Amino acid sequence: MKISNTTWVISVFCAVKLGLHLLADYHSGFQGDELLHIQTGDHLASGYMEFPPLIGLLAWIQDLSHSDSVFVHHIFAHLACIGIIMLVARTILLLGGDARAVFTGLMCILIAPGFERSQQLFQPVVFSQFWWVLNFYYLLKYILRLEKKYLWYLTFTLIAAFLTKYDAVFFAAGLPVLLFSRRTRTALIQHQFWKCLLVFLLAISPNLIWQYANDFPVFQMFSRLYSTQLDHLSFIEELRSLILSTNPLAWLVIIAGFIYLGIKSPRNIYFLVLCCITVSIVYMIYSKGKQYYFYPIILTIIPFGAIFYQEIIFAWRKWSFYPLAIILCLGLVMIPFGMPVYSLDRYIDRIHKKYADNTVPGGKYAISFEEYYSQFMWPQVLTLLGKTYETLSPAQKQHCLVWGRHYRQAGAVALWGKQYGLPAVFSYHGSFYSWAPLGNMPATILVLDYNGSWEEDYKELFTKITKVGRVYNPYADEEETLFQYVYICEGPLQSFDDMKRIYKDRIYE
């Protein structure tokens, strides 16, 4: 059977995309947030402090391998990024695109450094992008064909999206637009859309109940996020970052996508799609979203830009595909800015020294991608922690635990601690708060802290504090992560139950 040109194009892009991510796995360790997400697999629940429960289920499946390999814990992330490639291609084909349009659309994804990194890590972000693109695919199919099955498919994928990341509400915000068109409103009423809404609410209710039972910690997280980050964002600066992170060359296609949606006939269909997308964009801007919040929307615009070039530019001058393809291919030089395709030393020599403009007092390199150097940093930290534990007397070792002040520190000890002979770890940061022990505290606690910033706390919580040592991180891009300190804390003045009460309102500090 002859394989079509379109199939070849999609297959090549999937292979190249996967190859780049596997190469990045080889050159990198874990980003800090990943260490938290991996641990959710040991604590399955209907909700977590920062995110919905689906990431925990994926982590649990990965944990069946009992491996600490970067590759193993990126399996689902890699599958999701390949799924995104295939769904964007399917969307282009649904719109009537050919191999040239598919090449144009997929190249925009490949050359975007923001997509490379956000789709590399085991975080809800890549899965959110996958579900968003799949949701949009079914939404588009429903608008074009008005078939009831696509309404139900959209319902189920929207459930999965909400249980992956709460930014699904931005997508859902655009759906009421369907009621303003007589064509889709009539179809929705005929298809009894209220049943879909009821199923959606029932499916997400366990997570909502968990949030209610835990006093809605997600609101505390958002409050902290706004006070420390989002309220200080500049829309112009975030737009600039969005253009750079998605590659300025790709905006030749992205802008064309918006134009196509505005001029395409029949306007009652494509203008409706544009309105749905616009509502999501406006809601994100109103909510002061970071630039990477807009990545899923960019993924839904790219197919229309590809079709614009096929139907208008390529139809006018067939040869115009080739200069556009060459221009987009030039954007491949930006891939190293988004993922660790180079070794750390080569990245520093070829990229960081030439283009980095951020410095940290006392630091050396200020590398933004923690995964680039984490495989070198954590062994040093855990070695110091292990040596400290070995200095304890047998009586001190009895029931001794490690307190990781930040969830990435707790996650590192949980993942690799046994290799260094360390006891179990606990934390009150992020979702680790939910798993913190209760009852009496042991007589001795080892504390792992950033920059010694909580030392005054320890003096109020223990009768004796001993600062053992510190590990310097020359790659830190924040002053507070330049050093990690190890303490021996003895004679606790409260129980674990008291500790949970003390830190209840400080989960995200």
UniProtKB/TrEMBL annotation:
Topology relative to the membrane: Multi-pass membrane protein
Q: Does the keyword Ligase apply?
A: no
Location of the protein in the cell: Cell membrane
Q: Which keywords does the record carry?
A: Cell membrane, Glycosyltransferase, Membrane, Transferase, Transmembrane, Transmembrane helix
Q: Name one GO cellular component term.
A: plasma membrane
Q: Name one GO molecular function term.
A: pentosyltransferase activity
Provide the primary localization. membrane
Q: Membrane spanning segments where?
A: 7-24, 70-93, 122-140, 152-181, 193-213, 242-262, 269-286, 292-309, 321-342
Span of domain Rhodanese:
409-444
Matches recorded under PANTHER family: MANNOSYLTRANSFERASE YKCB-RELATED, MEMBRANE PROTEIN
Protein name, UniProt field: Rhodanese domain-containing protein
* Originating species: Chitinophaga caeni
